[in-house]
Amino acid sequence: xxxxxxxxxxxxxxxxxxxxxxxxxxxxxxxxxxxxxxxxxxxxxxxxxxxxxxxxxxxxxxxxxxxxxxxxxxxxxxxxxxxxxxxxxxxxxxxxxxxxxxxxxxxxxxxxxxxxxxxxxxxxxxxxxxxxxxxxxxxxxxxxxxxxxxxxxxxx
Length: 156
Hints:
Elements: E1 2-4, E2 26-28, H1 34-49, H2 81-94, E3 98-102, H3 110-121, E4 125-129, H4 138-146, H5 148-153
Parallel strand pairs: 3-4
Antiparallel strand pairs: 1-2
Helix pairs in contact: 2-3
């Protein structure tokens, strides 16, 4: 299964080296978690076409891959943000060694900030990859950096 950004336009031909070129990440996912991607696709397909896709012609059997558990959660502008927020909180609370978070629009609310600070108090290494000098939202850049103080002081 595949998920992430799929930028198909001239802006995506670069690597965010300037304001005219953007960058996104796309992921290939293998193993049983792909069934959750298939379910999300099927949900959108049904809503768009009224047709239910079913059977091995559309959804071949999935074999285990790798040695890591995985879970997918679905969020879109139309919904799912509560599920996404809860999943972030649960994942942060469950972390024992490391948290590596890449978020183009990282603007943590007080609950996320508190969870990340609690993780640091448990000696969890927390690294957050945020945008470089070019981002398509000045509002996000300003709001994000405003929230970094406590996190930076805690060695995030």
